[in-house]
Specification:
Blueprint: H1 2-18, E1 29-33, E2 41-45, E3 51-54, E4 60-64, E5 70-78, E6 81-82, E7 86-90, H2 95-98, H3 102-105, E8 108-111, E9 118-123, E10 130-135, E11 141-147, E12 152-156, E13 163-171, E14 174-182
Antiparallel strand pairs: 1-4, 2-5, 3-4, 5-6, 5-7, 8-9, 9-12, 10-11, 10-13, 13-14
């Protein structure tokens, strides 16, 4: 029985690691899924103002994304008991407040968050020049980098004290602001 549980766990880790880490848009219908295993029931939980529209108990759910950040969690279970829950943290994006075109917002990723060593700001494709500035809670700039040719900037957090930071990504006269937790 333990072997089955380990097999389910391995499949779920692979499935969750392959999920696109991109944050969803507020009001978007988003699908989350894992690799289905026969005889397994999946229990999903989402942030409090998100709504699971269908799929609870299955390997795939459709969710109406709310405004609250939080974890999407899936826990496998079968006749042997509950497996190990897997989770992924998401911060919903309000596309109406940034002014950025949706194709730019949807192509942007900032990971990992929380961060311990290196934070990556990345676009799925080259978008032209963009800048990443990071500020501590006092408003002091602790990092600045401009990228003209690549689609990624990596910020070194390893020498910064743990705490809350603000990342400001500027592109074409617009900005994307994200709260960063440094552990």
């Amino acid at each position: 029985m333990v072997i089955l549980r380990l097999f389910i766990y391995s499949a779920m880790v692979a499935a969750f690691c392959s999920l696109h880490a991109q944050n969803p848009f507020i009001g978007q219908i988003k699908t989350y899924s894992v690799i289905e295993e026969p005889g397994v029931t999946y229990t999903w939980t989402v942030p409090s103002d998100w709504t699971i529209q269908n799929g609870q108990g299955t390997d795939s759910i459709e969710v109406l994304v709310g405004m609250i950040s939080g974890y999407v969690v899936v826990t496998p279970s079968n006749t042997c008991g509950e497996g190990i829950a897997q989770e992924r943290y998401f911060e919903p994006i309000d596309s109406t407040s940034s002014g950025l075109p949706l194709h730019i917002i949807s192509a942007f990723n900032l990971y990992p968050n929380p961060v311990s060593d290196f934070l990556t700001a990345e676009f799925d494709a080259k978008v032209g020049e963009f800048e990443v500035a990071i500020f501590d809670m006092r408003g002091s700039q602790v990092f600045l980098n401009t990228q003209k040719t690549a689609n990624k900037i990596v910020a070194d957090f390893s020498k910064l004290p743990p705490g809350i930071y603000n990342a400001c990504i500027r592109i074409g006269g617009y900005s994307i602001n994200r709260k960063i937790v440094h552990q």
